[in-house]
Amino acid sequence: MNATTDLGDRRQHAGQDGTAVSTPSLNGAEVLLRVLQEQEVEVVFGYPGGAVLPIYDALFKQNSIRHILVRHEQAAVHAAEGYARSTGKTGVVLVTSGPGATNAVTGLVDALMDSIPLVCLTGQVPTHMIGNDAFQEADTTGITRPATKHNYLVKRAGDLARTVHEAFYVARSGRPGPVVVDLPKDIMVGPASYTVASTAPHRSYRPITEPRIEAIRQAVALIKRAKRPLFYTGGGVINAGPAASEALGRLVRLTGYPCTSTLMGLGAYPTTDPQFLGMLGMHGTFEANLATHGCDVLINLGARFDDRVTGRLDAFSPGSAKIHVDIDPSSINKIVPVDVAVVGDAGRAIEMMIEAWHEDRAEPDREALATWWRQIEAWRGIDSLRYSQDPSPSAIIKPQHAVKRLYELARETGRDSFVTTEVGQHQMWAAQYYAFEKPNRWMTSGGLGTMGYGLPAAVGVQVGHPEALVIDIAGEASTLMNIQELGTICQYRLPVKLFILNNRYMGMVRQWQELLHGSRYSESYSEALPDFVKLAESFHGTGMRATCLGELDDTIRAMLAHDGPVIADICVDEAENCFPMIPSGAAHNEMILGPDQNEQAARITVEGMMLV
Amino acid sequence: MASTDETEITAVISVLVENEAGALARVIGLFSGRGYNIESLTVAPVEDGRNRSRINIVTSGTPMIIEQIKALLDRLVPVHRVADLTKDGPHVAREMALIKVVSTGELRSEALRIADAFRARPVDTTTGSFVFELTGATDKLDAFIELMRPLGLVEISRTGIAAIARGPHTI
Ligand SMILES: Cc1cc2nc3c(=O)[nH]c(=O)nc-3n(C[C@H](O)[C@H](O)[C@H](O)COP(=O)(O)OP(=O)(O)OC[C@H]3O[C@@H](n4cnc5c(N)ncnc54)[C@H](O)[C@@H]3O)c2cc1C
Ligand SMILES: Cc1ncc(C[n+]2csc(CCOP(=O)(O)OP(=O)(O)O)c2C)c(N)n1
Ligand SMILES: [Mg+2]
């Protein structure tokens, strides 16, 4: 390391933003922690190792930043995601070099796909050893380049503070995402200078947040003249902060138009409101999907036309003029060509649309709207989420019913509740049967679909909201993917509730095998499951089990009343399928409904089988 | 409404990037990770102090894909500017090639005659070989190379294009 350079840096003095502050006694690790403090970081999720020992030493010597020791680095990232999504802050992760960094990769891609702001600090071998295949060396910036929004390798102590400040800015601004900062050990040990966060614009990175007024007016002109309009809202509204959700509520009520949401957007508009049609897409409601198919103006606010939403592209919302509000210009016309593109923050765009609505002097076509709503009510009348639960106490529990009762009983407690999920059928049932009145209460892995997300995410949510009710609605298979986090939950006395819809199958896989592969259940049975009650106890928690309907409510009540961590093993119908379902490669009007609704056979094409 | 035209077009895109480690890898990774074509790529620092480099990329795809590529390039953190030279107006694009021809007798003199017609300069000469240097538009280089094939062409080294918009405006 070039000591003279660092001395040179240290001789600089505090001044305007971005200049060095004279801090002769700090080493790199201490400078790093000062940056985190300035960035108002309250908690870091991490796991130690050789390359980050100096950082752990600096953590040991201070109290302002809390460290949560996870049991696996992937879980550190998911915990930070849960924390970020539920608090609106940037999640922070600290892992060691080599295996620490590679273990974090799944979490990083998960955060990238779902636009979650994270800063992940990775240890690295000393600068002079980089490239030597040194012990626990991995090309972390190389590996994580396509897994992050951006990444950095800090090669000079003088760049450390500026780089970490910049990482926070990049992670949270524009379309949020994960940012890795790779920190060689010598930089952490050696002297470094502190610089405060710069307020000058970034040299090259300038996200657009303010929408163009012309685009807004054009959009509103279309919206106001619509005969069959539909709001299609997504995770971008959640990213835009609670004020954006509040504005969305005003816009939807002002227009009187129907509103649907993606999986990632749930909670931005209250899901119990009559203007809300339920989720759209592969497992969306009949009314949401047919409205998407039949609308004449589709207003996409912060959603990205994901394939789980569009189904067969050439049949997606075929007759509509499309408006797309997105902060990322590369989302526009990526999959579905649109008529009006509004680049900018969803919250700002919605506020401007409300103003433009008042300015535009056209009168909405109330008659056409009434007809449209009558059509929607007819679709709603199908009651596509109906399921039949045998009411006898000895009856087998339907998973849908378990989620419905969980929601109702949790609501009775009057507590603010946050739900995370794993991936599979239970995730879809959670989306369908749990209601969300507010944003940031629903944490799920949508884009990557990472089994094992929910339990560590619940850790992060509970750390961010110590008083709240935090429930991971889980499948038994997914749960085992990060089950070690029961250790973290125990250590920090986090009263997380792990609510397992135990169908003894990788149910989502089993469902596809039933529908697409002739009921050949290849490797999808959850063999050799642990006894989840004893498992809870061995991690110093409380285990409970419900095996029949008669035990369901009492189990849920006991779980909610307990002030510590609980695993509730809810034994549910093994054969239940998740409906409605638009098979891959089918159009929205080719939805399969459940056995209780009118049988509607969809052609499951060979082409559809090749899709995932 | 955005173009849904399925015909493939070729585009010359210039990108001004911060000259930092990994910047080129990000650009290339964007293409390889998403299955887009790179037909040629050139990169060199273009500013005093060498803090910015210019990357010129020739790529092809449907108009929607070209727009997507530009948007994806533009959102990379170290990217300052992205210009679509093909779309934004007339531009000049030039590349340089070094072409080795090994032949004697009539073939050798024919090679020299054609090189002269193309204003290709011999930059290395032995009794049995030439290395010609030729600068020009890509199709001119292609044409020259085709003519050299029967005359003893053995090796080609091409730079890929450097391109710039015509007229007073800048990237
Ligand atoms: C088993 C399974 C089944 C699924 N089934 C469904 C389904 O039936 N229906 C469904 O909807 N999803 C489903 N998903 C989820 C799906 O894969 C996608 O993750 C989801 O549809 C994407 O949601 P989104 O469009 O809201 O985009 P997100 O991934 O949330 O992306 C947000 C978009 O908003 C933009 N943005 C970010 N911040 C802002 C801002 N401040 N202002 C404006 N724009 C912003 C981003 O650029 C991006 O384009 C399923 C997932 C799994 C694992
Ligand atoms: C890490 C990972 N591996 C594989 C998959 C594919 N996959 C999707 S759902 C699923 C089964 C999930 O089973 P379970 O957790 O029991 O949930 P269920 O569908 O039964 O509710 C699998 C294997 C995945 N999404 N993530
Ligand atoms: Mg299961």
UniProtKB/TrEMBL annotation, chain A:
Question: Region (Disordered): which ranges?
Answer: 1-21
Q: Which CDD domains match?
A: TPP_AHAS (cd02015), TPP_PYR_POX_like (cd07035)
Q: Which InterPro entries match?
A: Acetolactate_synth_lsu (IPR012846), AHAS_TPP (IPR039368), DHS-like_NAD/FAD-binding_dom (IPR029035), THDP-binding (IPR029061), Thiamin_PyroP_enz_cen_dom (IPR012000), Thiamin_PyroP_enz_TPP-bd_dom (IPR012001), TPP_enz (IPR045229), TPP_enzyme_TPP-bd (IPR011766)
Instruction: Paste the cofactor note.
Output: Binds 1 thiamine pyrophosphate per subunit. Binds 1 Mg(2+) ion per subunit.
Annotated catalysed reactions: 2 pyruvate + H(+) = (2S)-2-acetolactate + CO2
GO cellular component annotations, sorted alphabetically? Answer: acetolactate synthase complex
Can you give the residue ranges of the Thiamine pyrophosphate enzyme TPP-binding domain? 423-569
Q: Tell me the superkingdom of the source.
A: Bacteria
Domain named Thiamine pyrophosphate enzyme central: residues: 216-351
Which pathway, per its entry? Answer: Amino-acid biosynthesis; L-isoleucine biosynthesis; L-isoleucine from 2-oxobutanoate: step 1/4; Amino-acid biosynthesis; L-valine biosynthesis; L-valine from pyruvate: step 1/4
Q: Which UniProt keywords apply?
A: Amino-acid biosynthesis, Branched-chain amino acid biosynthesis, Magnesium, Metal-binding, Thiamine pyrophosphate, Transferase
Cofactor needs: thiamine diphosphate; Mg(2+)
Domain (Thiamine pyrophosphate enzyme N-terminal TPP-binding) spans 27-141
Among the GO biological process terms of this entry, one is: L-valine biosynthetic process
Entry's EC annotation: 2.2.1.6
Select a single GO molecular function from the record's annotations and give it. acetolactate synthase activity
TM annotation in the entry: none
Family according to the record: Belongs to the TPP enzyme family.
Please identify the protein, giving its name as recorded.
Acetolactate synthase
From TrEMBL, chain B:
Question: Entry's Pfam families?
Answer: ACT_AHAS_ss (PF22629), ALS_ss_C (PF10369)
What EC class does the entry list? Answer: transferase
GO terms for cellular component:
cytosol
User: What reaction gets catalysed by this protein?
Assistant: 2 pyruvate + H(+) = (2S)-2-acetolactate + CO2
Q: Which pathway is this protein assigned to?
A: Amino-acid biosynthesis; L-isoleucine biosynthesis; L-isoleucine from 2-oxobutanoate: step 1/4; Amino-acid biosynthesis; L-valine biosynthesis; L-valine from pyruvate: step 1/4
An MF annotation (GO) of this entry: acetolactate synthase regulator activity
Q: What is its EC number?
A: 2.2.1.6
For this chain's UniProt record, which GO biological process terms are given?
isoleucine biosynthetic process; L-valine biosynthetic process
Record CDD domains: ACT_AHAS
Annotated InterPro entries: Acetalactate_synth_ssu, Acetolactate_synth/TF_NikR_C, Acetolactate_synth_ssu_C, ACT-like_dom_sf, ACT_dom, AHAS_ACT, AHAS_small-like_ACT
**Could you give the subunit structure recorded for this chain?**
Dimer of large and small chains.
Q: What this chain does, per the record? A: Catalyzes the conversion of 2 pyruvate molecules into acetolactate in the first common step of the biosynthetic pathway of the branched-amino acids such as leucine, isoleucine, and valine.
Cite the NCBIfam families for this sequence: acolac_sm (TIGR00119), PRK11895.1 (NF008864)
Q: Which family does it belong to?
A: Belongs to the acetolactate synthase small subunit family.
Its protein name is Acetolactate synthase small subunit
Q: Upper taxonomic classification of the species?
A: Bacteria, Pseudomonadati, Pseudomonadota, Alphaproteobacteria, Acetobacterales
